């Protein structure tokens, strides 16, 4: 029996002790109608979106989930990646309408995004990261982008940024990147002792 996910709108995964990847790579193309992902307290989850590193394609494959608007990840203690992304990765994911991302108490997560991911998240408006004790930066700049990183556009539609109780957080972005958020109206950075300049948030 083959399960079709083409009409799936809301995906909720909770208290699952077996799953390691919320959405395997072979199901990504079926999720054109997906709007919401809520995942919580799944102890073995290491990755939200599978990226199928074994693909034989020599060119990049762009996969777009056009209707996804909200992602909430909570208490995923083994989570290491939202999805694995770098400039050698053949499968590139885009979320053109994702507006809200909330992450809480995912203690294995050291960064939320890599620099190659942010171009597919231009509509992000509300970002909250809380209680991830090993989180070092929100955006990790990849070595391949050292020469162009100062011109990178980081979340131009961001309106609310809340970084709470992140004891290892050193900055929003690793490296010197010129970013501005003209629409930002809410900025909260409580209990982040390594952050010395709340306005710059640069490490």
TrEMBL record:
Gene3D superfamilies per record: Ribonuclease Inhibitor (3.80.10.10)
Coiled coil regions, renumbered to chain: none
Stretches assigned to the Disease resistance protein At4g27190-like leucine-rich repeats domain: 4-133
One matching Pfam family: LRR_RPS2
InterPro entries: At4g27190-like_LRR, LRR_dom_sf, Plant_NBS-LRR
Key words, A-Z: Plant defense
Name of the protein in its database record: Disease resistance protein At4g27190-like leucine-rich repeats domain-containing protein
Source lineage: Eukaryota, Viridiplantae, Streptophyta, Embryophyta, Tracheophyta
């Amino acid at each position: 029996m083959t399960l079709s996910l083409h009409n799936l709108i809301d995906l909720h995964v909770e208290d699952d002790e077996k799953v390691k990847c919320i959405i395997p790579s072979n199901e990504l193309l079926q999720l054109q109608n997906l709007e919401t992902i809520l995942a919580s307290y799944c102890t073995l989850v290491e990755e939200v979106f599978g990226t199928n590193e074994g693909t034989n394609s020599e060119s990049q494959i762009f996969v777009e989930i056009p209707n996804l608007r909200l992602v909430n990840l909570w208490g995923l203690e083994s989570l290491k990646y939202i999805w694995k992304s770098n400039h050698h990765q053949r499968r590139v994911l885009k979320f053109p309408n994702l507006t809200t991302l909330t992450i809480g108490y995912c203690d294995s997560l050291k960064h939320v995004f890599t620099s190659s991911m942010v171009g597919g998240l231009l509509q992000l408006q509300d970002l909250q990261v809380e209680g991830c004790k090993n989180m070092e930066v929100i955006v990790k700049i990849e070595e391949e982008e050292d020469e162009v990183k100062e011109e990178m556009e980081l979340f131009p539609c961001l309106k609310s940024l809340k970084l709470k109780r992140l004891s290892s957080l050193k900055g929003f972005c690793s490296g010197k990147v010129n970013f501005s958020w003209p629409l930002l109206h809410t900025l909260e950075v409580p209990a982040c002792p390594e952050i010395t300049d709340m306005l710059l948030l640069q490490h």
